[in-house]
Amino acid sequence: MTVFLEQNKGYVMGDKRTDYISWDEYFMAVAKLAGMRSKDPNTQVGACIVSQKNKILSMGYNGFPIGCSDDEFPWARVGETQETKYAYVCHAELNAILNYRGNLEGAKLYVSMFPCNECAKAIIQAGIKTVVYGNNKYDGTPSVVASKRMFKAAGVEVYEYQYSGKELKLEV
Ligand SMILES: [Zn+2]
After folding, report:
1. Candidate list 6, 93, 160, 171, residue with the active-site label
2. Is 25 an annotated catalytic residue?
3. Which of 29, 50, 148, 151 could form a disulfide with 156 if both were Cys (CB 3.0 to 4.6 A apart)?
4. Is residue 77's pLDDT more than 70?
């Protein structure tokens, strides 16, 4: 199902719209929209942090730190560590946390992919209590195993986003 935002099927005068998006759809869509800013040729991840009252507090996507040019730093996945992206790239979750200058205690994080162990540490230390992830394509890898172990120990609730099958189409 594709939702065209300019349409409003089934609208009855005086009634509210019926085809509006849910909170979960809204925040996962915002996370994915942020991911579209990534210059990474292989993996685009987006994150969105939300307060307990469903206010968006911060967003982030995977990219190099401020001042580290996307044109000068390497996007390669193999080679000497300092010649690969892994030495430099800042993950979406970490960027979203660092982009916010306030208190994230009790907040909820939406992210398009299950957090790695490094981001899991930052999520826990920031006080984020809920993680909603879009996919877990690296499930079973040492990094994800470590993330799950830490989330469990720290009492962070983690759940998989349930896709509704809706497709949003935006003209930009
Ligand atoms: Zn990470």
Report:
1. 93
2. no
3. 151
4. yes
